[in-house]
Amino acid sequence: MPRPMHPTLNKPLAHTTREKIAILFGRGLLLHCPACGQSYLQYKPILAKYEATAPGMVKIVMRDYPLNPACNPNLTTMIHPAACDAAVAVRLAKQHGRGEAMEEWLYTHQQGMTSPIVRQAARDIGQVTDFDAKYASTLEGVKADVALGQQLRVQQTPTFFINGIKIEGSWQPQFFDQAIAYELQHAAK
Q: Virtual CA dihedral for 104, 105, 107, 109, nearest 10 degrees?
């Protein structure tokens, strides 16, 4: 049975030659989504393992898909009020080399998350001093990810694509690990 292919887009999802496998993460929300936080924490050591054992063979591409109609026009109901601010906070923290620390903090401090708490964490954890000044322009990048998510028919978070194969929701870590191992094995052929 042929494997499903990813939709054709004007810009590539990720590098998907036979030499590498690509994993596109739908990083839906960085705060209130227990499944997103759980998969992030569970998959992090798996991805680190492949970075150590097959350097350069697994490319991770993170995209935002916040469940907040202020930055996601595909929604009509407010699900996570601080999701737009969280996505912007990570992007701005990356400019200071603190993106991973910001993500980690957001994933591990989901309860009680509000926009003021996210903005304070952006200052403290992400070393972002110009959040308000850069918010609108940075939010445009988040909205571009949302548009890509709509093209890919993302309907929930987290959503993953492994070499173009869509996976909605989280898999048990051992199955996620096996999927990457399978793709690496077939990339070598």
A: 160
Q: Per residue in 73-107, pLDDT tens?
A: 988 999 888 999 999 999 999 999 999 999 889 98
Q: Can you tell me the distance from the alpha carbon of 165 to that of 24, in angstroms, rounded to the nearest whole number?
A: 10
Distances in Å between the alpha carbon of 128 and those of 106, 108, 174? 15, 19, 36
What gap in Å lies between CA 159 and CA 56, rounded to an integer? 22
pLDDT of residue 23: 62
Under a CB-based contact definition with an 8 Å cutoff, are residues 40 and 103 in contact?
A: yes
Task: Give the number of other CB atoms < 10 A from CB of residue 85.
Answer: 27
**Is the omega angle on the peptide bond into residue 66 within 30 degrees of 0, that is, cis?**
no
* Residue ranges in the chain assigned as alpha helix (H): 34-53, 83-94, 99-108, 115-124, 131-151, 173-187
Domain ranges in the chain?
Answer: 21-187
HSE toward the beta carbon, residue 172, CA cutoff 13 A: 3
63: β partners:
26
- The CA distance from 10 to 42, in Å, is 32
CATH class of 21-187: alpha beta
Q: Distance between CA 30 and CA 138 in Å, rounded?
A: 16
Kindly report the average pLDDT of the chain as a whole number.
82
